[in-house]
Amino acid sequence: MGSLIWFSQILCLSFMLLQFRVQSASPSQSSLSSPHLCRSEERSALLDFKSTTNLVKYCSSSSDIKQTWNESKDCCLWEGITCDKPKGHVIGLDLSSNCLEANLTTKSSLFRLEKLQSLNLAYNEFSYPNISFGFHNWKSLTYLNLSNAGSMDSSLLFDEISLLSKLVSLDLSSNYGLLNLDNIKFQMLVHNLTELRFLILDSVDMSSVVPSSLLNLTPSLEHLSLRSCNLQRNFPSQVFQLKKLVSLDLFGNDDLLLDNIKFQMLVHNLTELRFLILDFVNMSPVVPSSLLNLTSSLEHLSLSSCNLQGNFPNQVFQLPSLQFLDLSYNYYLRGNLLESNCSSTLEYLNLANTNFSGELPHSIGNLKFLKKLNLDSCQFYGSIPRSLANLTELTDLRLDANNFGGEIPASIFNLTHLTFLSLSSNKLLGHVPSWLFSLPSISYLDLHNNCLTGPIDHVEMPNLILQRVYLSNNEISGSIPSSFFDLVNLTRVNLSSNNLSGTITSDMLLKLVDLEELDLSNNSLLSLSNNDTAVNYSFPNLLSLKFSSCNIHKFPSFLSKAESLLHLDISNSEISGSIPSSFFDLVNLIVVDLSSNNLGGTITANMLSKLVNLRSLDLSNNSLLSLSNNGIAVNYSFPNLQTLKFSSCNIHKFPSFLRKAESLRELDISKNNISGQIHKWEIEGMSLRILNLSYNFLTGIDSFGSGNLETVDLRSNLLQGSLPIPSTWDSMQQLFISGNNLNGEIPFSYCNLTSLGVLDLAYNSLGGKIPECLGNLSNLAFLDLRMNKFQGRIPNSFVNKSELRTLTLNGNQLEGILPRSLVNCSNLEILDVGNNNLNDTFPDWLGVLPSLKVLILRSNGFHGAINNSMPASYFPQLRIIDVAQNDFMGLLPSNYFQILRGMRDVATADKLEYIGDGQRGHLIRCTPRGQCVVEIPQFYYKDSVKVVMKGSERELVRILKFFTTIDFSSNQFHGSIPEELGELNSLKGLNLSHNSLTGQIPSSLGKLAELESLDLSSNKLEGRIPEQLTKLTFLSVLNLSHNELVGHIPEGKQFNSFSNDSYIGNSGLYGCPLTKNCHEEEEPVAPPKFDEEDDSATLFEWKFALAGYGCGLVLGLSLGYIAFTTGKPWWVVKEVEKYQQKLVGRCKRRHKKRKTEKPNQCS
């Protein structure tokens, strides 16, 4: 946009110089004699034209020929008219930007101005029906501007213009992109217009023009602009013959390719170039070093979004005349700003969204003419240099999304012309300096997503120009100072997601008379005062108010005065009580979110019907709020309502009053108490796309409304009988019916749901065979049929390029082998076929799937040895593998463990990330005529699997991306445990129990720094427990029982927390927590375990129960009771206490909790 404005200004200046000779012939008012200089026939022609024009509605213009073209004045003095001095002919007519509309036919009076030399009709709404045989009357025309001048007929227009052989300047730009210039017309145009110096055809469709046709352009051409002309294929090298070119603009020709050789020709031949604009031209083959040959006269260079790659040469910054440089959105273009490498003439520098990096040098302050600096989304770091204060002409400074740290330099206060300052998404520290709000020219201030702390300081000199302030996502605390509300021209304020406290009153907000948007969400200590109900106030311009997750408690009373309000979000703010009736008088509301509060009372259809403009209403998670069906006989229309959410409320009946809500697209009334049947008449009038009725008590649904449904969620109800038949589900993308009481088979008609991306039928009693045709659904991404009674084989019909990402068949009665067509599912991430009757060997052929992360084969009849010579490229992302309770045998596959790259060096993200997050499919829709469109729907299916971890089976409702586990238990593996397992340093769980493994426990397992659970029980392992295992600081479950281990049990860290159960069945082990000491032959009864907090009564009771074992249990217990209750005899108590201290000193350590710190985005 910046380059467009800059270039347009220069071009307009050139046009003005071009017309200077024409306009210099215009008489001054003092030189005109009476009678009028203007010739009567031309004056009559102008008046006739005036009578045919009208003003365009909703268009503002500073001039109006209806008023200024006065018959009492000489027409040479009329606005927009230029006459020649001696003869009074009208030679110039400028009606640009007059908001005029008129028909320019062949008989238009304008064509009677035969001496016309300059015509500018730009930015009007003229139409040109039957315009042929009109332009030839203007034989002297040298300047023609029809830019955005209305709708034209391409076939006639270019024929007529080609007759204007004296044209020096032609501008046909824009015109709504409706003009089409074919190759023949273009050749005719350039062949006849041999005097052209300025040619502007922006947004004219030239896709059929052969590049070689440009060879015929006149060599006198100085300015060529072909913006967004849909030029195709290779860059037209013929342009390089135009050696007088001063400006070349090919912006927006995305399909145009410029290679390195042609670019070298361009810079070599066009030595007069001052303006070069190639934005969006594909320059990926161009080597950046080729830019070194650019002419020294170049003033304006714009190469945004050209796909430039490699290292940018710093010498380009030193071009002596360069004023404008835009390299933005070349994501792979590298470079830096070294000391003293920038031209002092630069006024505009844009490196946004490139890979420029390094520190911002102090010498940046040498660019004293710089007006705009944009380094948004680069890789710069370090402090913001104080030398920016030297850029006294700077108006626009954007350093967003880098890694700048330190405090905001106070020297910025010297930038008195600065209007736009954006430093968001960095790591800036310190307080928000109050002087920012006092910069004399600032109108836009954005510091969001930094590490700013402390309170906002008192604003000493509030700026009266500042309109937008964004300080969200920082750590700002304390109250908002009252002086902040003295910034009276603020229109948009966002202070959300901080630690603000205190109270906002309506009196404060009243000062901001122009306020349009206010967002204070996610400040849990910030409250809103309601103690001003008697005050007469209004908020005439307030459009959006967000107080989500604050400390409001009561419904804000001042909202009744915000009559212009369009968007309201006060969700999750602990608001209780009923919604006041005055709220439903805010008839302009479009989006409302009151969810997750403590609202009560009843919402009636009559209340909702008042909000005639409402599009989205979310009242979810208000457990006391109900919805009334009263007024069911009234046909409420709700003309604009598109989204209605009442999840987790107190609704007992389906809201049938919505049956006429024809605009309603999403209805969510899940997690309520709706029971019984939904009848056809209650829902058939809706045109829903998303229907969520999950977690209710529904027993049946007669109808699903219109055929536009895309998502239906009926999970966890009481639905019975067979699956619903999808007769009108042509658009269905997501179908959830799990957790019901459905039986029968899957209807074959489900195979006709070609748009289906999610099919979840889990946890029912469905049976029969899985239809083979389901594998043909190329858009199906998630198929969940677990915990049913399906029999037979898994379909072997998964098509090539299938979108399938999750296949879950756990807990059925399936048999046979895994279908080999699964190799076609290149997007498959989760395959769970556990707990079936499958009989197959290990599916190493699945290793070719590049995205497979979870493989569960548990509890089947898989058998044989696991291939130990798989290619190193196999299973690159596998995170979870469970082959437990099968019949695998042989050695553990050491080479296989080596290739599991997905279990090594897995980075833990700052926030929890799950498999399937943001999952999108590629949905292909085709019309009956064969026209296909690719859509990208957002799926909200959440992957889940069951794993055995820490000794028990648990369901992972969400699967963390960094969760990794191996379970090879309960098979027939023998031999030693491979050392290679120790390389899987991201492993969380390892279970090799219940096999026939021998040898020693490898010390390399001590390198599994993330390990939380280790189970090697019920094998034949021997030797000592490696001391290296004590390094596993996250290990919370250890089971080495029932082996042949010997020696002293290691002590320290997590090992001090494990119980006797971890080691039982190893007769050669001794040490804590076992009671057997070194060289002891008899093992006494093990005492129970004690914490420091354990009640001492337990200790006394056990001690004396053991003493009485030989003398009599009753006597021992009695002695223990007396000693405990009386403290006597003292020597008994003393001995017991001494023993307790000794025991606790050795074994008091219990299970330690893993401590995790909150990720620090500012570290």
Keywords:
single chain; 1163 residues; alpha/beta; 38-stranded mixed beta sheet; six-stranded parallel beta sheet; 14 helices; 12% helix; disordered N terminus
Question: If you had to describe this structure to a student in words, what would you say it looks like?
Answer:
This is Leucine-rich repeat-containing N-terminal plant-type domain-containing protein. It is found in: Cell membrane. InterPro entries: Leu-rich_rpt (IPR001611), Leu-rich_rpt_typical-subtyp (IPR003591), LRR_dom_sf (IPR032675), LRR_N_plant-typ (IPR013210), RLP23-like (IPR046956). This protein is an alpha/beta fold and 1163 residues long. Helices cover 12% and strands 22% of the residues. Strand 64 and strand 65 (932-935) form a beta hairpin. The longest helix is centred in the C-terminal third of the chain and has 18 residues, at 1130-1147. The two termini are 36 Å apart.
Structural class: alpha/beta
Low-confidence stretches: 1-7, 12-34, 918-938, 1077-1160
Shape: globular
- The overall pLDDT, averaged over residues, is 83
The largest sheet, given as strand count, sense and whether it forms a barrel, is: 38 strands, mixed
N-end to C-end Cα span: 36 Å
Strand content: 15-25%
* Total strand segments: 76
| Percent of residues in helices | 10-25%
Number of helices: 14
Radius of gyration: 40 Å
